[in-house]
Amino acid sequence: MDRRKFLKIASMTGLSVVAPVFSRPARAAAPYAGPFFVMISARGGWDPTYYCDPKPPGAFNNGIYMAPKAAGNLSFAPIAITQAGVGLNDPLSMGFVMSNDAFFSKHSDKLLVVNGVNMETNNHLRGVTTIWSGRGSEGYPSLGALLAAAKDPTLPLAFISSGGYDATEKLVPVTRLSSVTPFRKIAEPNRIVPTDPDNLARYHMSSTFDRIRAAQGERLQAQVSDFNLPTMKRSGSALFLARQGDDTLASVPLPDTLITMPTELSDLQRMCQQIQFALAAFEAGLAVAVNLELGGFDTHGNHDRDQVRQLAKLNFGIDYLISEAQAKGLDGSMITMVGADFGRGKGYNGPNPTDGKDHWPVGSAMFFGAGIAGNRVVGGTDDADQLPLLVDPETLELTDDEELGVELKCADLHVAMREFAAIDGSDEAGRYPLLANELSGLFTG
Fold first, then answer.
1. Are 154 and 173 contacting, i.e. CB atoms less than 8 angstroms apart?
2. Mean pLDDT, to the nearest integer, of 428-432?
3. CA–CA separation, 90 and 107 (whole Å)
4. Among candidates 318, 338, 305, which has minimal Cα distance to 131?
5. What percent of the chain is predicted at pLDDT more than 90?
6. Which residues are CB-neighbours of 369 under 8 A, at least 6 positions away?
7. What does the pLDDT read at residue 192?
8. Residue 74: which residues within 8 A CB-CB, separation 6 or more?
9. Three-class secondary structure of residue 133 per DSSP
10. Distance CA 76, CA 235 (A)
11. Which residues contact 77 (CB under 8 A, 6 or more apart)?
12. Helices (DSSP H) in 38-174: which residue ranges?
C-alpha cells in the first residue's frame, strides 16, 4: 500500500490531519519499516488489584476473587467472567470478552508488568498527562508524538490518535481518528455498491472514470502552480502527491470487512476497528505511532461489575492487536505500552456490593513487543495499604533499603522507553528532558 492510497482512505474514514506549524517540504516519503509503537490507554483509571497486581483473599481491596493465580512469573487476579456478572445482555457479547486467566495464560511470555508506579496524582487530566508524557504538567508531548517526531515526522500519518493524551507541542502533525467506515467503499469509489461483491454496477465506465481523475489531477497541478503563499504551496503540493498516479484502491491490503460486535460493545468495536486501521497504516509504512483508547474504567459505583467488564474488553482488544499484528507480520517490529490515569482504591467507597472504588495515585503499566523481555514483573505494592514498594534501580528487584531503593514513577518509564527506542539522543527528546531514575535493563532484562 502506498502513501497516496492510504491518504485517500484516511480522508473518508473520519481522519483529520492537522498540519504542522513547522516548515517541511512535501515529499513522496519512503515507506517506514519500523519500529512501530502502540499506546493503549485504559481511560478513567483501571484497578491493578483486579488485573496484574492481585491481592490475597480477604484483603480490603479484593472483594470477588480468591488467591492470586500465576502464569509464568506473572501473577494476576483470577476473576471469572459470566454474562450476568459483568452486566452484558447479549449472549453473543461473551465471544468478545476475555478473562484474565485466558489473557495472561496466553500472553505472559510476552509481557513486562510494572507495578507500584507512583502516579503522583489522582486527577484524571493530570494522570493521563503523566502516564503518556512522563510528567504531570502540560507542555510536554505525548510519547507517541515524541517517537513519531524523532523517527520520521515527514510521514503523512506519522502519529495517529484515537483518544487519550495526544499533545504534540508542534513536533509532528496528529491524525485524529474519530470513526471508521467500511473501507471497501473507499477502495472502489466508482462502484455503486462496493460492499456487495456480486453487484458490479458502476457510476461511470472505466474510461470515463479515468478521464475524470486525470482532469482532477491537471486542475490541482494548475492551482498549485498559481499559489504564492508558502503555506498554500505546501498544502497543495501535499494534496497533489496524495492524488498522483493510479487512484485505484481495490488492491489495498485492508480487510474486506470491519470487525463488528453487539451494540453493547460499541466502545470495544471502535477500539478494534481502530486497530485494523492502525495496522494498515503500519503495513503501508505511513505511520510510526498510534494512540488507542478504551474508556469506562472510572468505576466509582458498581466496581465489581463494571471494572471487570472493561478489563475483559481490554484483554480482548490487546489479544486482537497481537493476533492481527502477527497475521500481518508486524509483531516483530511493534512495541506496545498499556497504561491508565492511575489506579483505584484504597478499598471500597461503601459497604454495599454495588459500591465502587475511588481514585488512587498508584498504578501499573504493561509493555510487550519487539526486543522486550517478557514473563517479568518489576515493582509492586504492599498488601496492607496498596502503596509502592521500593525497587533497586540496578537489579530491578524489590528492596527494603530506603537508601538504595526508589519508588517507580512515570518519568522513569519514559526515560527507559526513550533509551530503548533509541531516541534518547535525539533533538526532540533533548528539548523535553525528564528527571528520572535510570532503571537498568527495564525492557531487556
1. no
2. 97
3. 27
4. 338
5. 68
6. 35, 38, 110, 331, 334, 335, 336
7. 77
8. 52, 104, 108, 111, 113, 375, 376, 377
9. helix
10. 50
11. 49, 50, 51, 54, 55, 62, 65, 68, 69, 100
12. 100-107, 124-133, 143-151
Q: What is the pLDDT of residue 204?
A: 87
12-16, 80-84, 188-192, 204-208, range with greatest mean pLDDT: 80-84
Please report the pLDDT score of residue 21 as a whole number: 41
DSSP secondary structure of 188-253: -TTBSSTT-TT---BSS-HHHHHHHHHHHHHHHHHHHHH--SHHHHHHHHHHHHHH-S----TTS-
d(CA 235, CA 377): 47
Q: Where in the chain is the domain with CATH 3.40.720.10?
A: 34-171+270-388+399-431
Longest CA–CA separation in the chain, Å: 77
Q: How many residues does the chain have?
A: 445
Over residues 3-15, the pLDDT tens digits come to 555 554 454 444 4
Superfamily of domain 34-171+270-388+399-431: Alkaline Phosphatase, subunit A (3.40.720.10)
Residue 202: pLDDT above 80? yes
At residue 183, does pLDDT exceed 80?
A: no
As to burial, measured by CB atoms within 10 angstroms (0-12 exposed, 13-18 middle, 19+ buried), residue 354 is exposed
